[in-house]
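Incident log, structure service

09:12 report received: a user says their structure output differs between two submissions of the same chain.
09:20 pulled the input from the user's history:
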Amino acid sequence: MRPSSNIDIPKWALRTLNNLYDIDRKLRIYGDAGNAIRNVEQIKEVFMESLQLFCEDPSGQKFSETRADLEASIAGIGTENLVVVEVIKPILRLGSQAYSQVVQKGVVIVKSQTKREA
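09:34 re-ran on a clean worker, output below:
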């Protein structure tokens, strides 16, 4: 497997997928009266079909320092039971859902999850 730094992905493709992720997130938070999420999903499918490039949203996933696909900032005071609470940039992958390479690490904020929050 080649390191992700050697993969030549057009910058426009990465920027477009990052913006699509942000649009999708905002539509899900603030509502989608015009059903634009459907269009966002169709554009994502084009990226998968033509470039085999797709986003992974790590929201809610457990975080440990051994994860190589995320760059994290810790919110709060605890460092035990860390969970992704906010995604600034999604993980971008090249390949298929079953086998892929990271071409962009996710940038996230993690927070210690207490038993009450679990």
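09:41 both user submissions now match this output. Likely a transient worker issue. Closing.
09:42 reviewer note: The two ends are 36 Å apart (CA to CA). The chain has a mean pLDDT of 89.
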